[in-house]
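Lay summary. Proteins are chains of building blocks that fold into shapes, and those shapes determine what they do. In this project we predict the shape from the chain. Here is one chain we studied, written as its sequence of building blocks.
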Amino acid sequence: MKSFRQAVEAGDHAAIEALLAEDVVFTSPVAFKPYPGKAITAAILRGVTRVFTDFRYVREIVGADGRDHALVFKAKVGDREIDGCDFLHLDEDGLIDDFTVMVRPLSAARALSEAMGAQFDRIAAEAAGAGGGDRHFGG
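And here is the predicted shape, written in a compact code that computers can read:
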């Protein structure tokens, strides 16, 4: 999804949030339960930008119907290199209604879990300020 990729690469959090459906579901690579809702998803994505360094998309794959997208990325979490993929599904209005992230290797996934866990009080407060919930990351 070109507009999402451009917003992420520009660090434009308002544009990223505008591309999320109200009922978006975010599935984390390190948490068992998905996070439903725009407020918590946007807050998590802001938290990720504080945790990742050297983030870059390296490949984009688009499904035949144009509603499924896979954005392959590379980044660092602390001193760990991480490879991952954002899987996005678009609703009828062209907004992201399903957002799943997968990462590798395990050592980097653990580093991501720890780093995001340290961010989660702030993430929950940001989401609550926008009307979201306060679920714990990694739980």
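What the prediction tells us: The two ends are 29 Å apart (CA to CA).
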